[in-house]
Amino acid sequence: MAIIRAIYFRIDLDANLIQWNRSVEMATGLAPETLKNRSVLELIVEKDRPSLIASIRKCIEEGEAQTEIRVLNAHGGSTLYQILCVTLKDEDGNTVGITGAGRDITELKRADEALRESENRYRDLVEHSRELICTHDLEGRILSVNPWAAKVLGYAPDELLQMNYRDLLAPKVQQEFGAYVDEIRKHGAAKGLLLIRTRKGEERILEYNNTLRTDGVTEPIVRGMAHDVTERKRAEDGLRKNRNMLAHIMDSIPQSVFWKNRDSVYLGCNKVFARQAGFDNSDGITGKTDFDLPWSQEESEAYRADDREVMENNRPKLHIIETQHQADGSRVWLDTTKVPLINAAGRVYGVLGVYEDITERKRAEDTLTRLAMAVEQAVEAIVITDTEGRIEYVNPAFEQITGYPREEAIGQNMRILKSGKYDESFYRSMWEKISRGEVWKGRLTNSRKDGTFYEEETTISPVRDVSGKIVNYVSGKRDITHEITLQKQVEAAQRMESVGTLAGGVAHDFNNILTVILGCAEMLTVRFPATDPSYQAIEEIGQAANRAAGLTRQLLAFSRKQILQPKVICINSVVTDMDRMLRRLIGADIDIVTVLEDGLWNVRADPGQIEQVMMNLAVNARDAMPGGGKLTIETSNVVLSEEYSQGHNPVAPGPYVMLAISDTGEGMDEKTASKIFEPFFTTKERGKGTGLGLSTVYGIVKQSGGSIWVYSEPGKGSAFRIYLPRTGESGDVSGKTVSPAEDLRGEKTILLVEDDESIRKLCVSILEKYGYMILPAGDGEEGLQLAGAYEGEISLLLTDVVMPRMGGRELYDRIRKQRPEIKVLYMSGYTDNAIVHQGVLDQGTAFLQKPYSPTILAKKVKEVLEARG
C-alpha cells in the first residue's frame, strides 16, 4: 500500500482548490485536472463538511483553525486527517485565501481507541475480579485497591488507602515485611503465601504474586494480586492430619477409590486403584493426571470431562459405564461413580471417584444383548408365555407370520391362533407334556389374524428359575406353509413321472401289437366282399384297434414320449383358427368369449398339439357346465417373477405367453384339483370318460417346455392357465405337407430291420404286395451284415428306432458309410434320443409312428423314396 505523505493545499474564500501537493492526489485518487477549482467540501465525507465549514469561518475570523476530517478516495473509502488552516493576506492585510496542511491520523486514532478500550477492560477486570488486587509503594503505603480485596479484608476502600500494607499482616508475621520488600527490590517480583488478619480479626491465607513497576512512574510501585486459599490450605491440613486413617480405610475397600483436585490432579488413591494403574502404592499416583497413567488418550479426556461436569454442577455423576486400559495391556469395563469434594465453606475443591470392575458382568450383558438381537432378528417366530399360556413376548417374525402386532398379541392367550382343526384332547395332551417339564415338538395348522390358515413346526420348551420351578414357556415356530406346498408339488410331479414312465412303456409295447392287428385287419378286408359278415367283423377289429391306438397316443402324450413337430407360432392364430370348430363342438348354450392380447409374443410349439390342448380343455369345460355358461379363452404376455417361481416349482422366472381357458361351471375342491392331471382319474360317470384328457394336456404342455396350473373352487368355476416360454424367432402356422401320390407301387429294394417278428413279417407281406424287394433282418447287427453281403442297390433302410444291441440310428450311420445314397425311414412306438431331442425330431428325419396301417406304411415309403436329397 502506498504511503500518503502530509497533504498541503490552498483554497479561496469559497473553499475552491487553487493549489495542492502530490499527496492530495494520492489521498483522493483524483487527477490534477479533476481537482482544479473543485470545492474542497466535495472531497470529504458528508458528515464532516459542517465541521470543515466551521473551521474555515473560524480561520477567517481568528487567523487559524484546527479540525479533523475524513478525505474520500476513489475506491469509496476514507482517510482521517488532522487539518491546520491559516489565512492568506494581501499587501493591504485583506484575507484572500486559506492555506491548509494535514497529517494522516487514522492509525493513531485507532491506537488511541484501542488503548482506551484496553484500559476500560482492565479497569472492569480489576473492579469485578475475584482476586485481591492492590498497589503500594516500597514503604508499604497502599495506593489502590479493588472492591474484592476490600470485601475480603473487611475494610472500606477509602479506609484501606489510609493504611500500610504491613498493617494487614497477622501480628506474628509482620516482622517478615522487610524481607518481602528486599526481595521485591532485588528481583522485581515476589510470590508466596501471606497470613493476613481481617478487620474482624479473622486470619486468612493469601497466595500472592506481586511485581515491581518502575517505568512511567515517578516512584517505584508494587502491583499485587492475591488469591484467598484459606479453605484450600485448611482442607490440605485436614487431609494431612487424617491421611493415615484415610489411607487405612481406603485400602480396606475392595473397589478402586481415588480423589482429585479441581485441576483433575490426583491427590490420592487406595491400593486397589494403584495396582490397576501399575504402582505399588498411592505415592506413585499423587500429583499425576490421567494422561500420565496407562489409560488411553481418549479415556483420559473422558475422565477429565466427567470430573469437570461433577465439579461445575456440584452434583454427583452415578454409574458411568466406561472402559479402561490396564497396566498389563488388558481392557476392562468399569462402573464409576463420581461426587464433588466440598470444603467447610461449601466450595467444591475436587472430585472423589469410586469404580468397580464389571468386565464379567458386561460380558454377560453383551451375551444377553446379542441373544436378544438374535431373537429379534430370527426368521422363526419366538413366543414367551406365562404358565397359563398368556403371551408376554413375541419377536417381529411372529408379527409377520400371524399378522398380530406385538402390542395386540401381548396379554392375549395363545388360543387366538387356534384353527379349529384339533379337538380339546389334542391341546390337553400338549399342556400335560410341557407342564411335566418336557419339550413338545410337532406340526400345527394355525390361524392368522385375517382368518387364513398356515402350517408351522413348533417346539415348546419350559423355562425354569434358579429353584427349578417352571415360570415360563418359550415356543419356536417356523412357518412351513410354503415348504409343504412345494413338497406336495414335488410329490405330485414324481407321481406323474412314475405313472408317465409306466404309461410310455405300456404304449410302446401296445403299439407294436396294434400295428400287427391293424395291418392284418386291413389286409383281410380285401379277401371278403363288403356284404360278407366276416368283412364286418374284420372292420370292427380295425375300429377297435384304432380306438386303442388313440388311447396309446394319449398315453404317449402324457408320458411326454410322443414326437412333436414344433414351429414358431402365435397362439392368437391358433385360437382364431379353432374358434368356429369349438363353437360347433361346445354347443349354443355356452357363450365363448375370446380376449386376445395385441402384440402377443411368439412361442415354439406343435400347432396340432396346441389345438389338441384347447380341444380337451374346452370339452372338459363343456361337461362342467351342463346347464350352459360362459367359456373364456384369453391370451397375454406375462413375465413371471422369482416369487411366483418359488411358489410354482419348477417354473423358472422370465417371459411367457399365457393361454387361459376359464369356465363358469361346477368347479372343484382342493383335493380334486390336486389329482386332475393324473391318468385315468375322472369325476365323470362310469363309461363317460377315459381319464386321459387332462393328463394328455399336461403331457403336451410339459413336453413343449411350458407349465399348467388350475385354479378352482366349488360353485365358482375353473381356470386353466398355460405358460409357454417366449421365443425371439419369427414364423407362422402355415406350411402343410402335400399328400403323396396315390400310386403306391414301387420296384426298389428295401432293407427292413425290425426286432418284433410279427411286425417284421407283416411289413414284408405289405411291401412285397406293393412290388418292393424286401431284405428282412431281426436286429441291427444282422441288418448290417445283410447290407454288406448284398451286391445289388438298396434304396431304403426301413428300421425300428429302439432295438437290442444296435439301434436304428447307429445302424443307418454305419450303412451310410458303405452306401452313401441310401435313404432311411424310422418307425417306433416311441423314440429315445437317437433321432429326437426333448420330443422333437432331428431336422429332415423321416418318421413313421406306430401303430400304422398298410396303406399308411406304403404311402410313407413312397414319399421317402421320391423325396429329393
Summarize the topology.
Blueprint: E1 7-11, E2 17-20, H1 22-28, H2 32-35, H3 49-62, E3 64-72, E4 78-89, E5 95-104, H4 106-128, E6 132-137, E7 142-145, H5 147-153, H6 157-160, H7 177-187, E8 189-197, E9 203-213, E10 221-228, H8 230-241, H9 243-252, E11 256-261, E12 266-269, H10 271-277, H11 297-313, E13 317-325, E14 331-342, E15 348-357, H12 359-377, E16 381-385, E17 391-394, H13 396-402, H14 406-409, H15 424-435, E18 440-447, E19 453-464, E20 470-479, H16 481-525, H17 533-558, E21 567-569, H18 571-586, E22 590-596, E23 602-605, H19 607-624, E24 629-640, H20 642-647, E25 654-663, H21 670-673, H22 693-703, E26 707-712, E27 718-727, E28 749-753, H23 757-769, E29 773-777, H24 780-789, E30 796-800, H25 808-818, E31 823-828, E32 836-837, E33 840-841, E34 847-849, H26 854-866
Parallel strand pairs: 22-24, 28-29, 28-30, 30-31, 31-34
Antiparallel strand pairs: 1-2, 1-5, 3-4, 4-5, 6-7, 6-10, 8-9, 9-10, 11-12, 11-15, 13-14, 14-15, 16-17, 16-20, 18-19, 19-20, 21-23, 23-27, 24-25, 25-27, 26-27, 32-33
Helix pairs in contact: 16-17, 16-23, 17-22, 18-19, 19-22, 24-25
Q: If you average the pLDDT, what whole number results? A: 82
Strand content: 25-35%
CATH superfamily (homologous) name of the largest domain: Histidine kinase-like ATPase, C-terminal domain
How many H/I helices?
Answer: 26
Helix content: 25-40%
CATH architecture descriptor text of the largest domain: 2-Layer Sandwich
By CATH, the topology of the largest domain is Heat Shock Protein 90
Total number of distinct structural domains: 7
Catalogue the unreliable spans. Answer: 733-741
Number of strands: 34
What can be said about the biggest beta sheet?
7 strands, mixed
Apparent shape: elongated
Roughly how many Å apart are the termini?
104 Å
Q: Which class do the helix and strand fractions yield?
A: alpha+beta
Radius of gyration: 58 Å
CATH class of the largest domain: Alpha Beta
